[in-house]
Amino acid sequence: xxxxxxxxxxxxxxxxxxxxxxxxxxxxxxxxxxxxxxxxxxxxxxxxxxxxxxxxxxxxxxxxxxxxxxxxxxxxxxxxxxxxxxxxxxxxxxxxxxxxxxxxxxxxxxxxxxxxxxxxxxxxxxxxxxxxxxxxxxxxxxx
Length: 143
Known about the structure:
Blueprint (H helix, E strand, L loop, with lengths): L6 H52 L6 E2 L2 E2 L7 H13 L3 E7 L4 E6 L5 E5 L4 E4 L15
Antiparallel strand pairs: 1-2, 3-4, 4-5, 5-6
């Protein structure tokens, strides 16, 4: 009597492993977008710290943004803001709005999942399913 597995038994085991691998791959696809969203939110939240440093230097938030995007030159924080802006773009997001005045600012970024993340000078950080209509040149807030 020979010991070992038959060809059919091996094929059944391989098929079961294949089905399990497929299930895991399908369940992990949503995790990628969640991870990207978390990274974009972290990047945008870092801008709050940079905004505070800009305000300490200039008594104004105006150097945080330029032309609706994160200012990546001539702000004194070019390296940091440039890296944040690039990372947001690399994570399949984009800075939708970056608006700053003397005493207020609002930054909104598109997330990889299709939502939007907004922070403002009042300390509010919020995720919305559509573009925030308050983050405009007249209202620098996410409320």
